[in-house]
Amino acid sequence: MSDKINNIIEELKSLTLLEAAELVKQIEETFNVDASSVSNTGMLTMTTDIENEASNQVEEKTEFDIILEQVEASKKIPVLKVVRSLTSLGLKEAKDLVESVPKAIKENASKEEAQEIKAKLEEAGGKVSIK
């Protein structure tokens, strides 16, 4: 590319969104064109720095799954009681769940609820992970 084009490109990169919108409006008026009616076939889209930053930021997770990873044989009954109180499962279903670890105890729980459930299960003797 020529130096003239390179300079224009560099200037365009430094524009804010408001300035870019104003530039488009001026180009439309000056050349009597409508930028909104241009077909996007074969066009590349440019992302702004703001969009790049937003896409690079990790969204804070709001829903968590509580997974019962492991239960010692001597702690099975206390963990079973906690599982029943948390899930409202019957005795047989809760026993099957505790014996077939790793299993999800609760899915899509809030962060606070997940921490509470983890604390209760660990207090009873289970090993728990939050995902």
Q: In summary, what is this structure?
A:
The chain has 131 residues and is of the alpha+beta class.
Could you characterize what this model shows?
- With 131 residues, the protein is α+β, with helices and mostly antiparallel strands.
- The chain folds into 2 domains: 3-35; 64-130, Ribosomal Protein L30, Chain: A.
- It is built from 6 helices and 3 strands; from the N terminus they run H-H-H-E-H-H-E-H-E.
- It has helices at residues 3-13, 17-31, 49-56, 76-87, 91-99, 111-124, and strands spanning 64-71, 103-109, 126-130.
- Strands 2-1-3 form a 3-stranded antiparallel sheet, with helices on one face.
- Helix 4 packs across helix 5 (91-99).
- The longest helix has 15 residues, at 17-31.
- It is rod-shaped.
Explain the layout of strands and helices.
Layout: H1 3-13, H2 17-31, H3 49-56, E1 64-71, H4 76-87, H5 91-99, E2 103-109, H6 111-124, E3 126-130
Antiparallel strand pairs: 1-2, 1-3
Radius of gyration, whole Å: 29 Å
Largest beta-sheet characterization: 3 strands, antiparallel
What is the number of domains?
Answer: 2
Strand order, main sheet: write it out. 2-1-3
List keywords for this structure.
alpha+beta; 15% strand; Ribosomal Protein L30, Chain: A; 3 strands; 131 residues; 2 domains
